[in-house]
Every structure is written in structure tokens, then in C-alpha cells.
Design goal:
Length: 119
């Protein structure tokens, strides 16, 4: 499941990943994210990765995700919450290629991630 929404009274858009993900979810999320980024400057992201199952991500969903390339240019900061070491490593590597400041937090560190995004 893939969901997203703006946190009330903030410039933060939260994306939550868990289980299986399909292309329609990516497309709907991208539309929400584009609208959020167009309306918010600065814009920050909080990405929460729960029990993401790579084998259950539709191939078309990955294509939809790739179509979102470029949106990160409108993001000031991105906090990633995950307990998966491979995801943390990927995020740190990807942060070398984007303008946004990216930090990785454990799932239990939500408050710290939000404090950083709001600072």
C-alpha cells in the first residue's frame, strides 16, 4: 500500500509505503505530490517505509515511480524512516545526486525526523 498526505499545518508531505504496491497507487500519489509541491515552498518530505515487499511491487509501479523523476528538485529536505539497512544505504547513496538534504531515521525516530524537518 502506498499513501500520501500533507501533515496538518505544515509544509511536510508524508508518504507511507507498506506491503504490496501497484501502479495506480504510484500514479495517484504522484498527482497528490505534484499538487503539494506546487503549493508549498519550502516543501519537505517524510517517507515512512514499513514492511515493503519488493516482490509485490508491480513492474508498472516502478515505471510510474520513474516518471516522478525531477520532482525532487522542489524538495528542500527529505526524512526517511526505515529499519531496513538496504533502504537506508540506498537513500544515502541517492542523496549524493539530488539537491534535497536527506537524512535517514529509524522507524521509532519519527519525532526526531519531524523536528528536523520543521527546524
Amino acid at each position: 500500500m502506498l499513501t500520501g498526505h500533507q501533515l496538518a499545518e505544515t509544509h511536510i508531505f508524508e508518504i507511507s509505503y507498506s506491503g504490496a504496491v501497484d501502479a495506480a497507487e504510484f500514479e495517484a500519489l504522484r498527482d497528490q505530490l505534484v499538487a503539494f509541491l506546487d503549493a508549498n515552498d519550502p516543501a519537505d518530505l517524510l517517507a515512512v517505509y514499513h514492511d515493503l515487499e519488493l516482490a509485490k511491487i508491480e513492474p508498472k509501479a516502478l515505471w510510474e515511480d520513474l516518471r516522478s523523476a525531477g520532482l525532487e528538485k522542489k524538495v528542500r529536505r527529505a526524512a526517511l524512516l526505515t529499519d531496513a539497512a538496504w533502504l537506508a544505504t540506498m537513500a544515502r547513496g541517492a542523496s549524493l545526486f539530488i539537491k534535497a538534504d536527506v537524512r535517514v531515521f529509524g522507524l521509532a525516530e519519527r519525532d526526531a525526523a519531524l523536528a528536523w524537518l520543521q527546524s
